[in-house]
């Protein structure tokens, strides 16, 4: 990144004219040009401004600033200009830079609707997210998954978000079910996959497959020993919670026949999660039970 040009300041001792002459002499000697450059001149200000602006094209500046790059208020054009730069940086060689770019885009899309802008770049963003999910590690995968869910929210229900889900869904599901992947990445992918499916899925078979995938995870927290009164939390508990909440969300868009089937399967087992020593698991279990009973009341009416 270009360094800011140092300004020549008047010498504190002596007259103002002497200071100005010293500054001009120094500038001429350093640059090899025999012309006067006044301190705090328009030229200096222009060079300093260009030096500052060039930082937006420097990947390291995004890596250092992270998502805060887009926090400042500005015009729509300013925001779109910065977003274009961040989209380009999702292809950077540095994992830190890619992660910062993903988080910056996600924060921008979470704070402002940019449907037209995103629609034009949907395929580029989808490809970048897919690449980061496949090749990135834990933090980068989490950032990519979070951006995927916000992308679907921006696009809304329709063919565009369906295509995003068809591309990213299998990758997200693979990470969720991968026991060797980091728990944090699997947890975020479970949440974001649930949101993406809720908005975009149009395939009932795929919906049922997703429900089964999530069930296979959170049911591992069910009480297994009949004489045990408390379910002890494990390193996987956070993943189980995210999977349970995503499963509950997707249950709200299932046909009544499927809801009835799931109700019969889980209504007697879910209460065991209320005995977990993890408060977040107890909260998630309570919310899921409340929704199941609400759905059951809807079937009776």
From TrEMBL:
Residues 22-32 have a biased composition (Low complexity). InterPro entries: ARM-like, ARM-type_fold, IFRD, Interferon-rel_develop_reg_N. Residues 49-299 form the Interferon-related developmental regulator N-terminal domain. Coiled coil: none annotated. It comes from the Eukaryota. It holds the Pfam family IFRD. Residues 1-10 have a biased composition (Basic residues). Residues 1-46 are annotated as: Disordered. Belongs to the IFRD family. This is Interferon-related developmental regulator N-terminal domain-containing protein. The lineage of its organism: Eukaryota, Metazoa, Chordata, Craniata, Vertebrata.
